[in-house]
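Quick start: read one record
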Amino acid sequence: NSRMRYHIESVHEGKKAKKVLCSTCGGSFVDKRTLETHIMTIHERKKPHLCSLCGKGFGQKGDLNNHIRSVHEKIKPFSCPIESCKTTFISKTSQKLHIEAVHEGIKPYECDLCGAKFAQKGSMKKHIDGVHEGKKPFSCDDCGKKFVYKSRMKYHIESFHEGKKAKKVLC
C-alpha cells in the first residue's frame, strides 16, 4: 500500500525530506499528521490508548499493540545476533538500537552538563531531568521515596516493601 511505502521511505529510510517543524522542540516531521501525533503524545502527554490488562496508556494504537505483545504475551520475535547476548526485542528497530548502543558503543547524545553519553535522546532527557534538575516523577506509595526511573521504584518496592530478592536493574 502506498501509505505504508511512504511511511517506510520517509521515516525509516530517510528518502523524503522532513519538512514540518515542531514549534515547541524544533523536531522535524514528514507531514502535519505526524507532527500532531508528536505534539499530543510528547508535549501534551496524552495517552488515549489504554491497556485493558494493566491500565498503561499509549499515544498510538501501534504502541499499545506492541506493549500487549511484548509485555503480556511475552512475544519478542527478534533476538540479538551476538551469541553471548540473550536479549530479545519486539521490533527490528529496537534490536538495531540495542546492537548499536550495547555492542557497538554508538551513543550519539551527550549531556552538555557532565558528558554522559546516551543511545537515545529520551534517555539523555531523563538523565538531565533526574540527575541535574532533581526531577523524580515516580513516588513509592508505601514510604514516599521518589525516583527518576520507574524501574528503580519497582525494584525498591519489591526489595524493601514486598521482601522479594529483586533482580538488580541497570538503567
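The first strand starts at residue 20 and ends at 21.
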